[in-house]
Amino acid sequence: MLQIDLAILKEIPQLQVNAELRIESxxxxxxxxELPGSFYKTMKNPDKKMICGLIENILxxxxxxKDRKMIKEDMKKLHKKEKIKNIDYVKGSTYIPLLMDYxxxxxxxxxxxxxxxxxxxxxxxxxxxxxxxxxxxxxxxxDYRLIPLKWKxxxxxxxxxxxxxxxxxxxxxxxxxxFPMFYTTPTIREYIDLNGTYILPxxxxxxxxxxxxxxxxxxxxxxxxxxxxxxDLKIIKK
Length: 238
Fold this sequence. Notes:
alpha+beta, six-stranded antiparallel beta sheet, 6 helices
């Protein structure tokens, strides 16, 4: 099992190393802004927060939101003690990046490519509502033991093939542990199919550079934008 080392977060960032991060796309990418609206339009280039997510993914920092909040509070105390301005990187997103202060993109992102195509596809967006009938209606599967019980529920008077909303809502709340944790909504999402490589000039903390350099030797595959956007990584010290 990969051991997660968070010791770098106890240290003040020192961007002493100039490096080049090369990101080669292995699948179509969908790099969506933090507030996408109803249509998930991709950006042409990844932003710094997406790169931070990619770096943390490569390092194996799969840390849940609750723990990230606790770690971030400790980091704020360190910043306050060292009189460093604390920047809120969470606006518009639930993702709390931890390594944003440990690197900078110091110039325009370059793209070496032979072909670029854009296309739209349906994507299943996950939601959770533990207190509403929309959750029960949106789930594709339920515990098989509930199926005969669901068929016995009161029917919708106008549409007899459907269960009454109130009856279904009560049934869902009484059996919430036997429903999937999330329900899905189909959403149109734009993808960029890039036959090429992003080249990012970085100023990076020397400890983070060494962590990435070691880790990429073991595993250089991560994802960018969403979990379907697989990429190959290389980092080169300049």
